[in-house]
Amino acid sequence: MAAPPGRQGAAGSALTARPCDKMAAALRAAAGLRLAGPGHGLVFTRSAFVARKNNYEHPNWFGVGLAFSTSAALWALLFKQHNEDVMEYERRKEASKHKCTGCS
Amino acid sequence: MAAVPEEARGLPPPPLLNKMSAWLGGAGWMAALLANGFSQRPLLTAGVHRQVLLTTVGWFAGYFLAKRTQYVHAKKDREMFEYVRHHPEDFKTAGKKRIGELLEDFIPIR
């Protein structure tokens, strides 16, 4: 969907503007605002520390492993906490049966 | 847990599948999808580890938030019912009117 040659500089008059010309103009404006990424979209995230293109050919396996292991640990902790809560509630219910229930 | 005091353990704990957990887990998942969108990655298939982690964090936070909510509501209820119990004169229910008192007397006209 490249604009035909010879139309690089002109935004095109209303009579001759086509959808691809409008898109090219929008991308040029976005490039001026540093918002245009490769392809047709806008990019909003940039590293604050190092300017570097993301390389999706080499995944960050350490990060992936850390994320999955943290998730597994959190789920285990959640199940453990829930089971403890249920047991504590049952225990208190049994204990309160032996007490008088005159006052709330 | 600082968020949930000791006496809250006398309340029945919320189930693992509860509305608050589901909502916050969904919010975490949406955050991961949004990050994919902003970084121009495929929306659903990229960064699955990120999606799983953020959903888990949301679910975890939702469980403890649900427990704390339950505790706060139960405490308010307890205080309210105690007040009602100690001040019965303020909470008299109006006597129920019988239907016979509401209707006019029936005077047959023949």
From TrEMBL, chain A:
<keyword id="KW-0496">Mitochondrion</keyword>
<protein>
    <recommendedName>
        <fullName>NADH dehydrogenase [ubiquinone] 1 subunit C1, mitochondrial</fullName>
    </recommendedName>
</protein>
<comment type="subunit">
    <text>Complex I is composed of 45 different subunits.</text>
</comment>
<dbReference type="InterPro" id="IPR026192">
    <property type="entry name" value="NDUFC1"/>
</dbReference>
<keyword id="KW-1133">Transmembrane helix</keyword>
<keyword id="KW-0809">Transit peptide</keyword>
<keyword id="KW-0472">Membrane</keyword>
<keyword id="KW-0679">Respiratory chain</keyword>
<keyword id="KW-0812">Transmembrane</keyword>
<feature type="transmembrane region" description="Helical">
    <location>
        <begin position="61"/>
        <end position="79"/>
    </location>
</feature>
<comment type="function">
    <text>Accessory subunit of the mitochondrial membrane respiratory chain NADH dehydrogenase (Complex I), that is believed not to be involved in catalysis. Complex I functions in the transfer of electrons from NADH to the respiratory chain. The immediate electron acceptor for the enzyme is believed to be ubiquinone.</text>
</comment>
<keyword id="KW-0813">Transport</keyword>
<dbReference type="GO" id="GO:0005743">
    <property type="term" value="C:mitochondrial inner membrane"/>
</dbReference>
<dbReference type="GO" id="GO:0045271">
    <property type="term" value="C:respiratory chain complex I"/>
</dbReference>
<comment type="similarity">
    <text>Belongs to the complex I NDUFC1 subunit family.</text>
</comment>
<dbReference type="Pfam" id="PF15088">
    <property type="entry name" value="NADH_dh_m_C1"/>
</dbReference>
<keyword id="KW-0249">Electron transport</keyword>
<keyword id="KW-0999">Mitochondrion inner membrane</keyword>
TrEMBL record, chain B:
<keyword id="KW-0496">Mitochondrion</keyword>
<dbReference type="GO" id="GO:0006120">
    <property type="term" value="P:mitochondrial electron transport, NADH to ubiquinone"/>
</dbReference>
<keyword id="KW-0999">Mitochondrion inner membrane</keyword>
<keyword id="KW-0679">Respiratory chain</keyword>
<comment type="similarity">
    <text>Belongs to the complex I NDUFC2 subunit family.</text>
</comment>
<protein>
    <recommendedName>
        <fullName>NADH dehydrogenase [ubiquinone] 1 subunit C2</fullName>
    </recommendedName>
</protein>
<keyword id="KW-0472">Membrane</keyword>
<dbReference type="Pfam" id="PF06374">
    <property type="entry name" value="NDUF_C2"/>
</dbReference>
<keyword id="KW-1133">Transmembrane helix</keyword>
<keyword id="KW-0249">Electron transport</keyword>
<dbReference type="GO" id="GO:0005743">
    <property type="term" value="C:mitochondrial inner membrane"/>
</dbReference>
<keyword id="KW-0812">Transmembrane</keyword>
<dbReference type="InterPro" id="IPR009423">
    <property type="entry name" value="NDUC2"/>
</dbReference>
<keyword id="KW-0813">Transport</keyword>
<comment type="function">
    <text>Accessory subunit of the mitochondrial membrane respiratory chain NADH dehydrogenase (Complex I), that is believed not to be involved in catalysis. Complex I functions in the transfer of electrons from NADH to the respiratory chain. The immediate electron acceptor for the enzyme is believed to be ubiquinone.</text>
</comment>
